[in-house]
């Protein structure tokens, strides 16, 4: 099981659960998360979704070993459940709270563009490693990050492939609150409970009003990013980066 799902007091908690791979997303986890988000959206007894990771990572991003194997066998071009999960995030009608308990790399960072509230451990850090992997941005991050943190902060995150620590993430505005590690989940849960005590139809109406202006931008950015990603995937820079990462036994991406 790659995803833990639990309900308490109208809050559905999703825990990414591949700790041996630092919760890197493989096809199974992308699909499981997408299905869980859709089911939470449709469940009349769920008011809020809380997403976090098991172990010492939030998510180390895309599972590069699986990606490299799919590129080699020619199946990657047929599509990925990555897009299934992004659609589910975009369509989620209820508030999404992310509790970033550890490293957030690649989709482990860009997924935060879809969160309504982000809590981050003081020891956590984020990285968008696209240029170091020789690829393009993903998950409409080229649109959502400038909206969330401003053009220059987004440019640094997307262009540099450098780590951003929790204090800097808070300054930029990608993290709403930074907590000591032991306080992270209690604080995220306390705020989730405040939201969950409200009228669910009202929460849905507010979320729709907040999210609707961004939908066209997400769609357009996704198309641009996917086209660029496809052009660059398997190119010299990408092939060398994948070989280096998988040679080190890393699942980061």
UniProtKB/TrEMBL annotation:
Pfam families: ECH_1
Top-level taxon: Bacteria
Gene3D superfamilies: 2-enoyl-CoA Hydratase, Chain A, domain 1 (3.90.226.10)
Molecular function terms from GO: delta(3)-delta(2)-enoyl-CoA isomerase activity; enoyl-CoA hydratase activity
Subcellular location: Peroxisome
Enzyme class label: lyase
UniProtKB keywords: Isomerase, Lyase, Peroxisome
EC number: 4.2.1.17
Annotated InterPro entries: ClpP/crotonase-like_dom_sf (IPR029045), ECH/Chromodomain_protein (IPR051053), Enoyl-CoA_hydra/iso (IPR001753)
Main localization (coarse): other
KW Ribosomal protein (keyword) present: no
Name of the protein in question: Putative enoyl-CoA hydratase echA8
Organism: Mycolicibacterium chlorophenolicum
Underlying gene: echA8_7
